[in-house]
# Entry
Amino acid sequence: MSWEEQGQHECLKDAKSLHFFNLIYSIEFQIIEMIDDMKICVST
# Structure
């Protein structure tokens, strides 16, 4: 692999892990929202 290819490969890897992180983050956020909604339902 040339340096250029190596750089593109690393960039792609970072993009994939960032996408994965965003996916987990959004799922966690949705779960937190759901729990908050459930708390509101229980308290009223």
About this structure: Residues 1-44 form one domain. The chain has one domain: 1-44. The chain has a mean pLDDT of 82. The helical segments are 3-43.
